[in-house]
Amino acid sequence: MAILEPFALAIGFLLSYSFDFTNSYGFSIVALTIIINIIIFPLTLRQTRSTKRMQDIQPELKKLQKQHKDNKEQLNKEIADLYKTKGINPLGCVLPLIIQMPVWFALFRVLREPLDFIPKDASLFPQLGDPSSILFYTMDLQIPASEIATWIDRIPYLVLILFVILTALYQQSQLTKKTGNSNNPQAQQMQMIGKIMPLFFGFISWTLPSGLVVYFLTGNIFRIGQQALIVKIEENQKDKENQKSQKDQKEDNNKSETSTENNDEKDDPRKNRKKRRRK
Length: 279
Known about the structure:
Mean pLDDT: 81
Number of helices: 11
Low-confidence stretches: none
Number of strands: 0
């Protein structure tokens, strides 16, 4: 597809540039993955915060479900309004995946036809003529696991695919484990996507070039660390806001008590006379 050629040329350039530093075809793909995930970090940050907020509003969701249990249409309307107020996108978890799809297709073309997209003056270009010189932990990253002749030789590829599935499952559970079951169709759809996507990636990894599987695995690991950091920052910020709110409330209560005492003294002339006598 002609529309993908600019992406493929950009991917080829980044791969060759990374290869100059790593001197490894596999680690150049790892570096490429990190660069792309840093670029889409604002989107990932928004998605992570949206999912975290969905955890925080679970008591409100359950209250709405109980209140409108006999009126699903009204329930869905109230939940949609709540999501809008809290800045939550129930399908936000798939947005980073959609954004990366052109990169996946472009990387697929580069891995399948590297000589067409790697710059000819790059140090990686002559290495591509000898597949044994660009092996990554005994794996040829330009071919899928399904094209390997014997099952013994497939073991490293199968381990790589297994890690993709496990890290994707952990990444999903990292943000949704506290969400619990919901009767809301949008939330149920998000949870279903979170369960299906890791298995889907494991399935397609069997027939995709192994370099693309390395991209999936690196992206999963990077986002696990990224999400853990974002959640920690969000929780620290929330704790500070709660402490500030409690402090403000305490000060308001103290002011209210002081004001009440002063009013009581003004209203009681006997206390005022006693004070004058003491003076």
